[in-house]
Specification:
The chain is an alpha+beta fold. It folds into 2 domains: 34-208, Jelly Rolls (Sandwich); 211-429, Rossmann fold (3-Layer(aba) Sandwich), CATH 3.40.50.1110. The protein has 10 helices and 26 strands. It is globular and about 55 Å long. InterPro entries: GDSL, GDSL_Rv0518-like, SGNH_hydro_sf.
C-alpha cells in the first residue's frame, strides 16, 4: 500500500484535533468497496491475413457475405457482465456487423437457448468497424464463471474481406450461411469448420472489484501450436487455472511465428505491445516468451535471405520492451528459450535448427537469467530440457516435432511459474481504512 501523502496526514491530524476538542469519538471503518471494473479475460491477437503464396494456408475464405461466424472461447476470469472486442486492424475499408450474440456453448456449434443474449454497440444491434480500428461492445448481462466457455456469433450481411484474423485458435469454429446468430443449433456441413478466428480479438468481464490481468506475449509455443484441439491445453490455459482462484486473469497474446525484432506471421513485439498488452484493461504483469523465431527463421523457407540477429540485437529488443512496459507500471517477467534440437523434421522447415543457432539461444538464456533487466525470470529451458541431452526437449514433454511442447509439457511450463514472483503479494488481502467521525455520546 502506498504511504499517505503529507496533505492526507495533515487532514487526518486536523480531524483528530477537532474530535478531541468537541468530545467526539473517532471510529475507524473499512473504506467503501471499490466500484465494479472491467478486466481483459481472453484474447486472440490480431494478425494480417497473408497471401496464397505463403507456406501455410489461412484456413479462412478471402471474403464473407451473408454468413455467420460462431467462435468458442474459454475465458480465464469470470464476471457479472461481459463485452466483446472486434478488430479491423488490417482492413482498408469499413466492415459491417449485422448482428452479434453471446451464449453458453454446447457441442458442435450449438448453444444453450436460455443463455442467448444479443450484443449491442452504442445501443444498436448493427455496427461498422472502421479501417484499422477496434470496436468494444456494450456490456452484456450474461454472468460467466471463471474458466467457462463463451460462444460468440457474428453475422456479416455485406461482402466482408477477411483481412484481420488470428490464425491458430486451437478451437473449432464455424462459418455458416445466413443469419444464424440466434440459432440453438447451426446447420452444418463438413466444410463449415475452421480453427482460425476472424474479427473476434477479445473478451472483457466486469468484476465486483478491480481485478488484475497477466498478459503472455509469445510465439507458437504460447499460441499452443501443438496443444490438443478443443481441449484448452495451451500453457497459458493451465496458468489461468492456477490464477483464477486468486481473482487474476490470464490473457494469451501468443502469435504463431511471432518474433521479437521482425514482422512475420504477426507484427514484431514492439509494434504490437500497446495493442496486445498495455491497452488490455487490468494488466499488471507481462510474461515475454519470444526470441526463438528471431534466431531460427533466417536461412529457412520463412526468411531465406534474412540476417540472423546478434545477441546485442536481441538484448536491445528485450530492454526496450521492459522499458516501455515499466513506463506503464507493468511488471515484466522474462522466460528462457526452450530446447529445439532436431526441430520440425520432415517439413519444409527442417533446417530450423542448427548448432550455431543453439549457441545463440544459450547466450540469450544466460543473459535473461543474469542480465538483471527483467523483474523476474521463468526458466522454461530448465523445465523442458532432457537432462541427458539438454539441447533437446525431454521426450515426455515433446509434442513430437522437437520444438513445441505437448499438453504435458504445457502443464509443466504453467506449473513452473512462481505466482509470487509474477504478482508480488498475490495472496495478501487488500488493507485500507478511512477516518469516520461519530458524534460524542
Amino acid at each position: 500500500m502506498k504511504k499517505p501523502t503529507t496533505s492526507l496526514l495533515s487532514r487526518a491530524s486536523a480531524v483528530l484535533i477537532l474530535a478531541l476538542a468537541t468530545g467526539s469519538t473517532i471510529a475507524f471503518a473499512p473504506a467503501m468497496a471499490a466500484p465494479p471494473a472491467w478486466v481483459a479475460t481472453w484474447q486472440a491477437s490480431p494478425q494480417q491475413v497473408w497471401g496464397s503464396d505463403f507456406l501455410f494456408p489461412t484456413n479462412v475464405p478471402p471474403a464473407l457475405r451473408s454468413e455467420t461466424v460462431r467462435q468458442v472461447a474459454r475465458i480465464s476470469l469470470g464476471g457479472h457482465r461481459l463485452r466483446i472486442v472486434l478488430s479491423n486492424t488490417y482492413g482498408n475499408q469499413p466492415l459491417t456487423v449485422g448482428k452479434a450474440t453471446v451464449a453458453q456453448p454446447k457441442q458442435r456449434g450449438g448453444v444453450i437457448t436460455d443463455s442467448l443474449r444479443t450484443v449491442t454497440f452504442g445501443g444498436r444491434e448493427g455496427a461498422n468497424i472502421l479501417p484499422g480500428a477496434t470496436l468494444v461492445s456494450d456490456p452484456v448481462a450474461l454472468p460467466v464463471s471463471s474458466l467457462a466457455q463463451v460462444a460468440v456469433s457474428l453475422y456479416l450481411p455485406d461482402t466482408t474481406p477477411v483481412s484481420t484474423f488470428h490464425w491458430d485458435g486451437r478451437q473449432t469454429g464455424w462459418i455458416v450461411p445466413g443469419d444464424q446468430t440466434s440459432a440453438p443449433a447451426l446447420k452444418l456441413t463438413k466444410a463449415d469448420g475452421t480453427t482460425a478466428r476472424p474479427l473476434l480479438t477479445g473478451i472483457q468481464v466486469e468484476t465486483e472489484q478491480a481485478a488484475r490481468a497477466v498478459v503472455v506475449l509469445g510465439d507458437s509455443i504460447t499460441d499452443g501450436a501443438t496443444a490438443s484441439l478443443d481441449k484448452d491445453s495451451r500453457w497459458p490455459d493451465f496458468l489461468a487455472a492456477r490464477l483464477a482462484p486468486h481473482g487474476v486473469a490470464v490473457v494469451n497474446a501468443g502469435i504463431s511465428g511471432a518474433r521479437l525484432l521482425s514482422d512475420g506471421m504477426g507484427a514484431n513485439a514492439l509494434a504490437r505491445l500497446d495493442r496486445d498488452v498495455l491497452a488490455q484493461p487490468g494488466v499488471r504483469s507481462l510474461i515475454v516468451t519470444l526470441g526463438i523465431n528471431d534466431i531460427s527463421w533466417p536461412g529457412t523457407a520463412f526468411a531465406p535471405d534474412a540476417r540472423r540477429p546478434t545477441l546485442d540485437d536481441l538484448t536491445a529488443g528485450y530492454r526496450q520492451l521492459v522499458t516501455q512496459a515499466h513506463s506503464h507500471g507493468v511488471r515484466v517477467i522474462g522466460a528462457t528459450l526452450t530446447p529445439f534440437e532436431g526441430a520440425l523434421p520432415g517439413t519444409p522447415l527442417d533446417n530450423y535448427y542448427h548448432p550455431d543457432k543453439d549457441v545463440l539461444r544459450q547466450q540469450v538464456n544466460d543473459w535473461i537469467r543474469h542480465g538483471d533487466v527483467f523483474d523476474a525470470v521463468i526458466d522454461f529451458d530448465a523445465v523442458l530440457r532432457d537432462p541427458h541431452h539438454p539441447a533437446r526437449i525431454a521426450t515426455r514433454y515433446d509434442s513430437g516435432d522437437h520444438l513445441h511442447p505437448g499438453d504435458e509439457g504445457n502443464r509443466a511450463m504453467a506449473d513452473a511459474v512462481n505466482l509470487e514472483a509474477l504478482l508480488p503479494g498475490l495472496d495478501a488481502p487488500p488493507a485500507d481504512i478511512s477516518l469516520k467521525i461519530s458524534p460524542a455520546r
